[in-house]
Design brief:
heterodimer, A: 279 residues, alpha/beta, Elongation Factor Tu (Ef-tu), domain 3, Rossmann fold, 2 domains, 7-stranded mixed sheet, 6-stranded antiparallel sheet, 8 helices, 15 strands, 30% strand, globular, B: 338 residues, alpha+beta, 8-stranded mixed sheet, 4-stranded antiparallel sheet, binds flavin-adenine dinucleotide, binds iron/sulfur cluster, binds FE2/S2 (inorganic) cluster
């Protein structure tokens, strides 16, 4: 008998809810079924379909690293129907999850290199996964620099982790808020991410750059990196085309003949440049 | 299996159909009601209308229903129970009298629904469906199967292909094991096949463009996408009637305590298809969506799935409310009538 239903979600219990910023929450999720929990494996950069029964599914990356076993986390912004329903869920409640889908950051190939992470706004979650993944394997990498910006101080997410990274001697953290977004107590930078990046002494040699953020930030960040002589194949980012299935069947996530759900969501700038502007 | 040819006399056709129906199979066949020709579930042979060029809708809904239940659920705050659909209850089905374009369309759908992971809803329905095709006696100005590597007598996708030959008798080409299983149920109705040139009994449809030329000339930039789609209404009818359009949405029907999750036909013609919550839309304008339709069928699917996403049935052009004609556009792109 056939019973493999690729659309059927696993059930997960919300273990912990963290309020990150206005309308942004992080859920820590655990599989209810032991077998599913044991068999689950994923890589940094992959995503899943999270659902509330009766409301539908939403696509989020897995925001916790694969090096932390036993749970996954997702961070999402309340924007529409499914994310609003999710935002109303509390600890102990159950949601659906299908995944992991998509490709991943090739972090094994980054061994022995410097890593520069550049993130803007709510786009930190996919980056957080790969940052923690690399920090958990710290000896494999050389210098690790994180540049993170948001509109206002309030909008910065993962505040505890930012503090932790800030205190670590083996991490350079630069945080910034858009002009006007600062508070009197703000000690970080003021300015848009690309501008701050331009002012930094970037060394492109033996360095991988990972950039995640709103399209406008990405658009202005790539040239800064290229100017600093980063190779286009060493600059990574993720695309967020609208998705439904996550496995190449529903037909909506493609950019030309590339399916973001299967061939992405992780792409290098070199790959992106060859794609039509359909994202 | 090796295909075998048989003769089915015209007077045996009603018994053939009615035996299958009485044997408990669901049988869909073309019917005519007030000039409208559609596949319908039939009980008696007299309901069938075989002298047709094309039905309005395709046969895809038999293997890919417009709404497919994926599972049911009951839930409260701390418990969620998911109830699987029992695929074993999907009935054995026969599609009778589908033209070769429709028969060939299952291969395209199959390519999508088995890409890397298998969609068991589609596969089970397809496995339980036997296609008894019917070669075309006539075509109209919208047909172009010969331009997409098919022809009016093509056996591709048919488990049995019938062709009307001399004296309105039928040549039956039994192509697959599924076809043979049906044949065995009504074996006594068949006779040895005569030597016939099947081609003499199917309509002659010249090739209207060259598929390789078309693929060579298709490009994302710089083509006449805008001009071809200026009057398009984004209504989605073309995808609705198309045998190979397979895009879908996933939605929940019900509330947070009880309901079902369904897969439901969707189309790249609609602006919401790719719209992000932020308002950003990678395919904001209709010409971008028309381009997706053509590129997906004639460039992306061949590249990624090794099938063309069009069987040349012409349904989209016949049904389009503003007479956008895909054949004219394909001829234009490929560089003229060959
Ligand atoms: C690979 C990937 C990773 C993502 N990771 C995150 C993340 O970690 N955190 C986060 O907050 N958001 C993320 N998003 C965006 C997130 O999927 C949408 O914001 C969310 O689906 C909106 O759902 P909604 O039902 O609340 O909104 P509605 O507007 O009610 O959405 C209706 C439908 O539109 C689709 N949709 C709308 N906007 C988007 C969008 N920007 N991207 C993809 N689908 C969309 C959804 O499928 C949804 O079912 C990601 C998107 C992708 C493709
Ligand atoms: S695109 Fe038009 S002609 Fe081609 S298979 Fe679909 S409906 Fe038929
Ligand atoms: S049927 Fe015609 S008008 Fe409607 S979406 Fe298709 S091409 Fe456009
Ligand atoms: S999300 Fe369905 S095809 Fe990519």
């Amino acid at each position: 008998m056939r019973n493999d239903n690729i659309y059927k979600p696993c059930l997960m219990r919300i273990e912990k809810v963290t309020d990150e910023a206005p309308d942004v929450k992080t859920f820590r999720l655990k599989f209810i079924d032991d077998v599913q929990a044991r068999n689950f494996d994923f890589k940094a950069g992959q995503f899943g379909e999270y659902s509330v029964m009766g409301e539908g599914e939403s696509t989020f990356c897995i925001a916790s690293p694969p090096t932390r076993k036993g749970y996954i986390e997702c961070t999402f912004r309340k924007t529409g129907r499914v994310t609003s329903a999710l935002a109303n869920k509390e600890e102990g409640e159950i949601i659906g999850f299908r995944g992991p889908y998509g490709n991943r950051f090739p972090i094994e190939e980054w061994k022995g290199k410097n890593l520069l992470f550049v993130a803007g706004g709510i786009a930190l979650p996919p980056m957080r996964c790969v940052i923690w993944n690399c920090l958990d394997l710290r000896e494999d990498y050389k210098d690790i620099t994180i540049v993170y910006g948001a509109k206002t101080v309030d909008d910065l997410i993962y505040k505890n982790e930012l503090e932790e990274w800030n205190e670590r001697p083996d991490v350079t953290l630069v945080t910034t808020v858009d002009p006007g977004g600062e508070t009197p107590a703000w000690k970080g930078q003021i300015g848009f991410v690309p501008t701050i990046l331009e002012k930094m002494e970037l060394k492109a040699e033996n360095t991988i750059a990972v950039v995640c953020g709103p399209p406008i930030m990405i658009k202005f960040t790539f040239p800064v990196l290229v100017k600093a002589e980063f190779k286009e194949a060493d600059i990574f980012t993720t695309l967020e085309n609208r998705m439904k299935c996550g496995f190449g069947k529903c037909g909506r996530c493609n950019v030309g003949s590339v399916y973001v759900c299967k061939d992405g969501p992780v792409f290098t700038y070199a790959q992106l440049k060859k794609l039509p502007a359909e994202y | 299996m090796t295909p075998q040819n048989k003769l089915l006399k015209k007077e045996c056709l009603p018994t053939f159909v009615e035996t299958l129906v009485k044997g408990g199979k669901l049988l869909y066949a073309p019917t005519k009601e007030n000039e409208r020709i559609e596949f319908k579930l039939i009980e008696n042979f007299s309901e069938i209308y075989l002298d047709y060029i094309q039905t309005t809708k395709s046969i895809k809904s038999i293997v890919f229903p417009p709404i497919e239940k994926l599972f049911e659920y009951v839930a409260d705050k701390e418990h969620v129970e998911i109830k699987d659909v029992n695929l074993n209850t999907i009935p054995e089905t026969i599609v009778f009298g589908a033209h070769p374009c429709d028969a060939a369309s299952f291969k395209v759908l199959n390519a999508v629904f088995t890409w890397d992971c298998n969609d068991e809803f589609f596969l089970t329905r397809k496995d339980k469906t036997t296609v008894i095709g019917l070669s075309c006696k006539n075509h109209d100005d919208y047909c172009f199967c010969t331009s997409v590597d098919l022809n009016p007598g093509s056996t591709e996708g048919s488990d049995i292909l019938l062709t009307r030959i001399e004296n309105d008798n039928y040549l039956a080409e039994i192509m697959t094991e599924k076809g043979e299983a049906v044949y065995k149920l009504v074996k006594n109705l068949f006779e040895p096949a005569p030597q016939v040139d099947k081609n003499a009994f199917v309509t002659q449809l010249p090739k209207l463009f060259d598929l390789n030329d078309l693929r060579g000339k298709l490009s994302f930039e710089g083509l006449s996408w805008m001009q071809q789609s200026l009057r398009c209404l984004s209504c989605g009818t073309c995808a609705y009637v198309c045998p190979t359009c397979s895009c879908f949405d996933i939605q929940d029907i019900g509330n947070q305590t009880k309901g079902k999750r369904v897969r439901i036909w969707d189309t790249c013609a609609l602006p919401q298809f790719t719209l992000h919550t932020s308002g950003h839309n990678p395919r904001h304008f209709q010409n971008e969506r028309w381009r997706q339709r053509i590129m997906h069928k004639f460039s992306y699917e061949p590249e990624r799935l090794h099938v063309y996403g069009c069987v040349g049935c012409g349904r989209c052009s016949r049904a389009c409310p503003v007479n956008i004609n895909i054949l004219e556009n394909l001829i234009e792109i490929s560089g003229g009538n060959k």
